[in-house]
Structure formats: C-alpha cells, structure tokens
Fold each of these.
Amino acid sequence: MNKVLVTGGAGFIGSHVTDLLVEKGHEVVILDNLSSGDKKNINPSSLVTFVEGDVRDEKTVSETFRQHATIDAVVHLAAQSKVGPSLESPQNDLDINIHGTVNVLEGARKHNVSNVVYSSSAAVYGHVEVLPVSEQASAAPLSPYGVSKLAGEEYVKAYGRLYDLNVSVLRFANVFGPRQSAATEAGVITIFIEQLIEGTQPTIQGDGKQTRDFVYVKDVVRAVVDCLEKTDKIASPNPVYNVSTETMTSVEELLKQLCSAVGENFDPLYVEERKGDIKHSYLSYSKLSEEFDWAPETKLEEGLVNTVEYYRSLT
Ligand SMILES: NC(=O)c1ccc[n+]([C@@H]2O[C@H](COP(=O)([O-])OP(=O)(O)OC[C@H]3O[C@@H](n4cnc5c(N)ncnc54)[C@H](O)[C@@H]3O)[C@@H](O)[C@H]2O)c1
C-alpha cells in the first residue's frame, strides 16, 4: 500500500487504525469533519495528513483523492454512529452514513483505489434468536442507524461487484477502549467510567440483564489492517466479517468489573430502556479466524483497566 485514506480518522476507532498503519510504516490521509472526533486523537507522525472536511460534500471527497493521488486503500469509518440520534433525525443519519459512503466509494472508483474496508455494525442484525450471531443471519435492523449501516454495506458490496475494487465489510460488536467518546454507540463503558471517577451514581438503562459483546479497540484495528494487507487470504469476493469476542457480558456484570478496575463500589440507578436497543448481542468471529487467523487478544478485564487508566490520565 502507498497511502491509506481513513475517513473518521480523528474519531475513536479511526485514530487507533491510523496509529497501527503508521506503526507499520504506511502513509495516512485523514478526512474528518471533527463533529465527534478530536484533533488531539490524531497521530502526530509526519506520515499523517489531516484534511478537515465532510464526507457528505462530494467536492471535498473528490478533491481529497485528487490532491493525494497515491491513495490506494480506504478505511471508511466516518459516520453518525449512535442509535439515539438516528431515531431523532433519521434524515441526518441517512445523509452522513449513506450519502457519505457513496461519495467515498465514487472517489475510490474514480481514483483507482484497490481496496476499501467499510465499518459496519452488529446493529444491522436486530434481534437474532440463534446465538452467537453468524454473518449468515438475516439482517433486520431495529434503528435507522442499523438501516443506514446496512445500506452502506450493500453499496460497498455492489461497488465490489461492479468495479475493480476489493471490498471488505466489518461488522463490529461493541468496541471499547481509550479515546471513545461517552456519546458513541458503545459508549456505556466510557459513561460508567466517567460516572465512577466523578463519584456519581451509575445509571443502567433497562434491567441490566441485556448483554453485549465488548471487543477491545486494538483487536478491532488488527482486523481492519488484516483486510488491507492480507487480501490473498480472503476466501470469497466482497466478504462480510463479524469482529467480536463471541462472549456475552451483561451490563450489570460490566459495571461490576468496572467498579473493581476503578476501585469504587456503587449501586446503579435503573432507568427506562432505550428504544431501538438490541436485548442480546453476541457475534461469532469464526469467519475472520478461519481466513485471517484472527482472534481477540485482549481480555475484557485487561481492556477495562487500560481504558480506566486512560480516562484517569485525563483528569
Ligand atoms: N464504537 C463502536 O462500538 C462501533 C460499533 C459498530 C460500528 N461502529 C462504526 O465504526 C465507525 C467509527 O465509529 P467510532 O466509534 O470511532 O465513532 P466516532 O464518532 O468516534 O468516529 C467517527 C468519526 O467520523 C467523523 N465524522 C462524522 N461525520 C462525519 C462527516 N459527515 N464527514 C467527515 N467525518 C465525519 C467524526 O468527527 C469522528 O471523528 C463508525 O462507522 C461506526 O458506525 C462503531
């Protein structure tokens, strides 16, 4: 690879993707409008160029490809990535997540990019009876956010079929780790940590028995970079992979582990559950494991301790 365009590279996952690419000696161009990302997250290496701009703006996207003519791979992460706001403004969600994705794909197609990795979500599945959820499960999203990510997937796969583009779709479970904003899709960990560090009572939406599959960000970015670097391992064109730990953790259990990582103990306040939330989510990663020999390496406890340390360092 010459140069990788990372959309959303100032955000949580995008900044870690950039860090790993830089560590491996790749040049990175970040396109981000800083709506939820932060310049502080951007790797200061001279291998990184930051372009402040919006993926909804076709001119900005095509100008970014034109000015950085050697971009030959794209990791598309820029998105409205929260379920709640997607219920309040599905139009905004559609605009960023679908329109923005099409702009990025058009840019990639016109500028001879060879490889596109698209970040999708477990939110595309909705409620699934058979757990762990495999990539073959039918998609029935419960929120406009999930619909927009699924539509993005379909555009990405269609571009893979139509043009000379290697595309991979990664469906992330609940990603966590340093630099995650409390407002993101899986921000429950950051929210709890902030509440515990401040000494306020943590709030659980629903009965706390809902389960999630929490995967550490460093493991997620290894999967992203595998899709860029090991295209020879991909078994069939336009693949979709879950990126997960195949482990169910209830929100109550998560809070318990966090209390021990922070060294504080609080009884949570239970409030009404959020609309559009999936009750149980637990994804199989066997496809990623078979093709890339990928497995999550960071245990939940270790990831939580690293994340708590990061937020403590900010106070
Ligand atoms: N965090 C998770 O648990 C999770 C789970 C599943 C999928 N995802 C997906 O992973 C991707 C990254 O999520 P994240 O958690 O890092 O979120 P994030 O909000 O930290 O990062 C998104 C980045 O995109 C930028 N952005 C948003 N709208 C933009 C626009 N119109 N133009 C340019 N830049 C824009 C933001 O400023 C931010 O830097 C998203 O596509 C999200 O849907 C995340």
Amino acid sequence: MPPAKKALVAGRLHRRLRRTLGMDGFGTYCTYLHDWLPAELTHLIDAITTNKTDFFREAAHFEVLTHHVVPALMAEGIGVQRPLRVWSAGCSSGPEPYTLAMVLSDYAARHPMAFHITGTDVCTEVLETARAGIYPEAMVDPIPLPLRKRYLLRSRDPGAALVRIAPEVRDAVTFRPLNFMDSVYDLPERQDVIFCRNVIIYFDHERQQRVLERLCRTLHPGGFLFMGHAETLTDFTLPLHPVAPMVYRKT
Ligand SMILES: C[S@@+](CC[C@H](N)C(=O)[O-])C[C@H]1O[C@@H](n2cnc3c(N)ncnc32)[C@H](O)[C@@H]1O
C-alpha cells in the first residue's frame, strides 16, 4: 500500500488493537506481530482489506461479456470444445462471481455452452460468506427480476429477510484463497476471462504493474481482462489492447 493509505490502515486496525486485543498502541501491536505473525495475519488482513461489492456492479460489463466477449470466444470453440474459464480475482463476499454465474447460466440456456468460475480473495472472512451464498434481501435489488426469480431462493423464515443463491449457480463457482502479492498465481489452469475490478486501486504503481503482468500470464492469448472504472491501464506496459471501456484483450 502507498504511504497515503497510512491513516486508513491505522483507522481499520484501531478496533482490533484496542477492543479485541486490549492494547495501548501500535508499538505494542508491532511487537505482538513480530512474535505472532502467522496467527495474527488473517485478522490483520481481514481488518485492512476493503470488501465493498455489489451484485451487477458496473453493470455495462455484463452486457459486454454476453454481447461481445462470449460470442468471440465461442467462435473459437471455447465453451463448446472445452469449458469457458472465468476468474473473479478479488471476489470479496461473492456478488461478482455469482453475477457472472447468473449471467452465463442465462446465456447458456439460449446458446448451449459450458463454463466454470473461480472466485479468489486474500480475505478469509469474505470467502466464508461467499461459499455460504446467503445475503440480505436488500443486497440483491440490483439483480434483474427474471434472474432473481430463477436463481435465488427465499429464506423459509419470512422474518429473516435473507436470500440464498440457488445450487446450480453456487455449483458453477469455486472459491479459493489467493494473494496477489504471491509471485505465482496458484490456479489450476489459464483463464479465458478475468474480472479484476476495484482491487489494484489499493496498490502502489510498482505493485500494480507486477500484479497486472501476472494476471496477463494467467490469461490465454486472446483472453479478456475486465478492470474497474477507476483503473485505467494507460500507464502500464502490458500485452493488452482496449476493446471496450475498461475491457482489454490479450494480444
Ligand atoms: C473493493 S473489493 C472489490 C470486489 C469486487 N471485485 C467488486 O468489484 O465488487 C476488493 C477486494 O480485493 C481484495 N484484495 C485486496 N488486496 C488483495 C490481495 N493482495 N490479494 C487478493 N485480494 C486482495 C479484498 O480483500 C477485497 O475483497
């Protein structure tokens, strides 16, 4: 993280330090980290990551996916001769990969094809929520009504105001931990489409370049990379060319 994020990190850690660990300041916490890093690391990461996400966030991207990207890949036999592989990189609590799964299931009902989605995040807490696939009703408002009817299950307890993602959508997504700071990304296969939106915005420029290079290595030639709307790639040297706003294709 760049130095400008110092106040943000301090604010996030304050609660863990004072309330949970009962410490008097960051000096004590640094000594504690020195002795207990493996045990504390998960809590540290959970406290400092920003996990804001939504279903159908930056919705135009899902139109680009079904109108341009999937047809272009299917024309090359991807999704037909073998499953289309999509990676939601920095998936938070799951709305992005589940949106992808709903949109692609809906597409596949009209144009038969096979696909699989992998969702990864460094934060274990959000991955647990993602695997459970249970969300407050208010959170699913952005999902178009026909998809809500088809792919969401209402809680049996009407007072609970919760919905669950239907098994056919949950089964299309695998969640696993992955830290973008790792030198190699541990995914079983190269991907055809990567959504890495609203994640690298938190890294400094040098790390952004390294992460983007690794994402490109994980992408098949001709594969597509979707970035968040605040994340222009013009300052980086990468084997990508723009095809739509914040959508790039590997050359
Ligand atoms: C703001 S959320 C974006 C979620 C989703 N992509 C979206 O656009 O709605 C950013 C996610 O990136 C994850 N993240 C931050 N640093 C990471 C790292 N070094 N490796 C993997 N994930 C990271 C955070 O845990 C968080 O869940």
